[in-house]
Amino acid sequence: MKALTNALKQMLDALAHQHAGEHMSMKGKDIVLEDQLDDFNGTSSKVFEPVKVRASSNMRRVALYMGSELPSEVMDYVIETCSRLGHELTVLTFQSSGVGKALLSPYQEALEAAGVEMEMVTLKGDSVTGLARYLRSHPEFAFLACKDTGYLGRSYLKGTQRKDALPVPVVVVTTLDEANNTPDQAVSAQGNSEVDAA
Description:
Layout: H1 2-16, H2 26-41, E1 61-66, H3 72-85, E2 88-93, H4 97-104, H5 108-114, E3 118-122, H6 127-136, E4 141-147, H7 151-158, E5 170-174, E6 185-188, E7 194-195
Parallel strand pairs: 1-2, 1-4, 2-3, 4-5
Antiparallel strand pairs: 5-6, 6-7
């Protein structure tokens, strides 16, 4: 019976570590394999914890399209939404990494306070085509948020952009219009409904 128990433990351990090698560096693989060889020879008594792999395809994320500027109203809406829904944030931009980090730096403290994890991805190519390609290859996105004064937001608000151009719903966040003093609001480009950003 003890031999059967040990065999079952080995099988379950193998299943738990089945895909771990895909997410480890070569040095990490060498360490694990070396330790497992010691275990096989009976010279080690270490117990290995399963490798924690971030299964991004199972996580929900919010995408933010960032151009050359980032209004605080847009970032406030995205941080609040991510915090409320428990989603992580991915900032998609065609700007250089340095420019992107400079635009996001004033919001780092707010992101940390809200417990929102953020990553920035620099895209290449045409804006709508590049966004569509990236979003199609990453099914974990719940929606894409953008500002109303940028190219993408204006094209959705004016109706010049096809509603199905991107594979996820697009939320156009309107900023304070100084001429009309209208309040901030988020307009869903695919649902044509308005949602309060505050």
